[in-house]
Amino acid sequence: MSTARLRLRRAPLHAAAVVTIVLCLFPVYWMVTTAFKPNRDIQSASPQFLPHTWTLENFRTAVDADGFALFWRNSILVTLSAVLLALIVALGASFAVARMRWRGRRQFMLLVFVAQMAPWEALIIPVYIISRDTGMLDRLPTLTLVYFMMTLPFTIVVLRGFIAAIPQELEEAAQVDGCTRMRAFRHITFPLLAPGLMATSLFGYVTAWNEFAYANFLIIKHQDSRTLPVWLSSFQNVFGTDWGATMAASTLFALPALVVFLLLQRHVTSGFAAGAVKG
């Protein structure tokens, strides 16, 4: 097949890809450009795709807003704690499922898949009742445990497939040389898990960082324990029609997830692919 005919056959796929990219990125583009526009340009009757005048005043307003630094700290603390806890627990569980043979192993994985498919929004009321009855409302550790439970099933599934893709003979050879099973895993298998750990960390980070519903329902009285998504939802009420400041706050909110993705992007694709190799 000639190159011209091959390009012609691929043209619809390329067009679909371009349309998808535009539809996904245009809201983000509009958010970022609005953040740099002065209020008079934002409220103009004719929309501007690029700011005629660039300003940082909207970002100053967002950063100086009451509670910004506190809620930023809360989000970072809860997100990193949940991701680290999920990685530690999932690493042990996935190793046990991938390397050991024990009764109920398949049933365990079935339950993990069920937990992964369950809509977490449907569990808000049970989680709220349990938190209320145990005195755990309005506490950051409660959010950490919830986010940990949300990210744990996916982390187990991906790491299990990744460990299964690593030849077990490598660990057996280390054990023949005198290493214990745990030491062989730590020195042989664990370094090879870096892409899988990066991929699951990114998923857990984005999930916990962007979560709004539980943070809004579980933190009611103690406003100082709220996270950035909840603060961002009330931003417009604080500033009225100041859409520039609202978009600036949204841009600042999206930056950490973008930075984490850019740092881990080389490992993410290989991690997800390797995690799906073996069931």
Structural commentary:
It contains 14 helices and no strands. With 279 residues, the protein is mainly α. The longest helix has 33 residues, at 3-35. The two termini are 38 Å apart. The model is unreliable at 275-279 (pLDDT under 50).
Layout of strands and helices, then pairs:
Layout: H1 3-35, H2 39-42, H3 57-63, H4 68-99, H5 105-117, H6 124-133, H7 140-165, H8 168-176, H9 181-192, H10 194-210, H11 213-218, H12 228-233, H13 235-239, H14 243-275
Helix pairs in contact: 1-14, 3-14, 4-7, 4-10, 5-7, 7-10, 7-14, 8-9, 10-14
Structural features:
279 residues; globular; disordered C terminus
Which word captures the global form? globular
Low-confidence stretches: 275-279
The largest pleated sheet is described as:
none
Radius of gyration from CA coordinates: 23 Å
Q: Element order, helices and strands?
A: HHHHHHHHHHHHHH
Terminal residue distance: 38 Å
Approximate helicity band: over 70%
- Percent strand equals under 5%
Total count of strands: 0
User: Counting H and I runs of at least 4 residues, what is the number of helices?
Assistant: 14
The whole-number mean of residue pLDDT values reads 83
Helix/strand class? mainly alpha
